[in-house]
C-alpha cells in the first residue's frame, strides 16, 4: 500500500509529508519524493541512514525539508503510476530505490532531478550516459551488482565445491537481472558449472521457479539482487531449505535464513545519497554530478543454516566474513 506517512518503525526520523501541510508551506520547504519498489519494512535500514545523513547536513523535519515516501510493496507494475503522481505533486527531487524505480521516474520526468539510491548498472540500463558525466536529470549511486555477481558464484563454490549445477533466481522485469545471468554464464564453464536460471516476475512465480530447479537437479542457488525478492525472503529461503539448496543472496538484510550474502553495504549508499540531495538543493545540476560506485562490500555467513544443510564452512572463508550468524 502506498504510504504518504512513513511507518512508525522509523519514527524519530524525517517523516512523510503530512496531509494537512498548507500549500504555502509546500512552496517554501523543499519536497523530496522517495520512490521505492519494496515495502517500508524491507528498506528501513536504508531510509534510516538517509534520514540521519540529512540531519547531519542540517535539514530539519518539516522545517527545512519534507519527504513524501511511496512504496510499491514489490509490485513493479505500480511504479509508473506512483512516479507520475510524485511528478504531479511537483516535488523538487526524486530519490529512487533500485533500477526499476529509476526507470519509472525517468519515464515520468526529464526535468525534476532524480537521485538513484542504488541501481546495478545505470549505464548499461540506459539511465545515464556515463558514470563520469551522467547527463540529463539523473545521477546517484550504482550498487555494482553486475560486477560482483561472479564473486557470489566463487564464494558458493568454496562452500559447495561439488556443485556442478547452480540455480539462479532472477526477475526478468528487473533490467539489471538478465545481464547478471550472462555474466555468470560467461565464467561458469571455466569453473565446471552449469547455470540453471529461472525467472519470477512476482511472488506467484517463485514456486514455479523452484519446480524448475528441482527438475534440473540444481545443487546450489544464487538469488540475484531484486527488491521483489527482498519483499518475500522467507518464502524463498523456505523453498531453498526444503530443496536443500545452499543459497547466496545479494543483500545482507535478506540473509536471516539463507546460507550467505555478499554485496554492497546499502545503508552506506543512502548516507551518500543524502549528499546528492544537499548538493542539488544548493544549485548543483545532476548532469554535472558523477555517479559513484560502492566502496563497502559485506560477506555474511549463517552457521545455523550451514549446520542444517550439513555443510562445513572453510575456516579461511569464515575469517573473511564481516558477520557470522550463529
Task: Give an overview in words.
The chain is α/β, with parallel strands linked by helices and 326 residues long. The protein folds into two domains: 8-142 and 265-288, Rossmann fold (3-Layer(aba) Sandwich); 145-264 and 297-325, Rossmann fold. Helix content is 37%, strand content 18%. The protein is built from twelve helices and twelve strands. It has helices at residues 23-28, 44-56, 79-88, 99-108, 145-159, 177-188, 206-215, 227-231, 233-242, 266-281, 303-308, 315-320, and strands spanning 31-36, 66-71, 93-97, 114-118, 138-140, 165-170, 194-199, 220-223, 247-249, 260-264, 297-302, 323-325. The strands form two sheets. A seven-stranded mixed beta sheet has the order 7-6-8-9-10-11-12, sandwiched between helices. Helix 6 links the parallel strand 6 (165-170) and strand 7 (194-199). Helix 2 packs across helix 10, helix 3 crosses helix 4 and helix 5 (145-159) packs across helix 6 (177-188). It is elongated.
How would you summarize what this structure contains?
With 326 residues, the chain is an alpha/beta fold. The protein has helices spanning 23-28, 44-56, 79-88, 99-108, 145-159, 177-188, 206-215, 227-231, 233-242, 266-281, 303-308, 315-320; strands at 31-36, 66-71, 93-97, 114-118, 138-140, 165-170, 194-199, 220-223, 247-249, 260-264, 297-302, 323-325.
Amino acid at each position: 500500500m502506498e504510504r504518504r506517512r512513513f511507518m512508525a518503525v522509523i519514527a524519530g526520523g524525517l517523516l512523510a509529508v503530512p496531509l494537512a501541510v498548507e500549500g504555502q508551506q509546500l512552496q517554501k520547504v523543499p519536497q523530496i519524493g522517495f520512490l521505492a519498489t519494496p515495502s517500508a519494512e524491507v528498506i528501513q535500514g536504508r531510509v534510516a541512514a538517509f534520514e540521519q545523513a540529512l540531519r547531519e547536513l542540517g535539514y530539519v523535519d518539516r522545517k527545512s525539508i519534507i519527504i513524501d515516501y511511496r512504496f510499491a510493496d514489490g509490485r513493479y507494475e505500480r511504479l509508473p503510476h506512483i512516479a507520475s503522481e510524485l511528478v504531479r505533486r511537483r516535488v523538487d527531487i526524486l530519490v529512487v530505490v533500485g533500477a526499476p524505480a529509476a526507470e519509472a521516474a525517468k519515464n515520468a520526468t526529464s526535468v525534476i532531478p532524480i537521485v538513484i539510491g542504488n541501481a546495478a548498472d545505470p549505464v548499461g540500463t540506459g539511465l545515464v550516459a556515463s558514470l563520469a558525466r551522467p547527463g540529463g536529470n539523473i545521477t546517484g549511486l550504482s550498487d555494482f551488482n553486475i560486477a560482483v555477481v561472479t564473486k557470489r558464484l566463487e564464494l558458493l563454490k568454496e562452500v559447495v565445491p561439488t556443485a556442478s549445477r547452480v540455480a539462479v533466481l532472477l526477475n526478468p522485469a528487473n533490467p539489471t537481472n538478465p545481464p547478471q545471468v550472462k555474466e555468470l554464464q560467461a565464467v561458469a564453464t571455466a569453473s565446471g558449472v552449469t547455470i540453471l536460471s529461472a525467472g519470477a516476475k512476482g511472488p506467484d512465480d517463485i514456486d514455479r521457479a523452484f519446480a524448475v530447479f528441482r527438475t534440473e537437479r540444481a545443487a546450489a542457488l544464487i538469488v540475484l539482487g531484486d527488491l521483489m525478492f527482498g519483499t518475500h525472503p522467507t518464502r524463498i529461503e523456505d523453498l531453498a531449505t526444503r530443496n536443500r539448496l545452499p543459497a547466496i543472496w545479494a543483500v545482507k538484510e535478506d540473509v536471516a535464513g539463507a546460507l550467505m550474502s555478499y554485496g554492497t553495504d546499502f545503508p552506506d549508499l543512502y548516507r551518500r545519497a543524502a549528499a546528492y540531495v544537499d548538493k542539488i538543493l544548493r544549485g548543483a545540476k545532476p548532469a554535472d554530478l558523477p555517479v559513484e560506485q560502492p566502496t563497502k562490500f559485506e560477506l555474511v555467513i549463517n552457521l545455523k543454516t550451514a549446520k542444517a544443510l550439513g555443510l562445513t564452512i572453510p575456516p579461511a572463508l569464515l575469517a573473511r566474513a564481516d558477520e557470522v550468524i550463529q
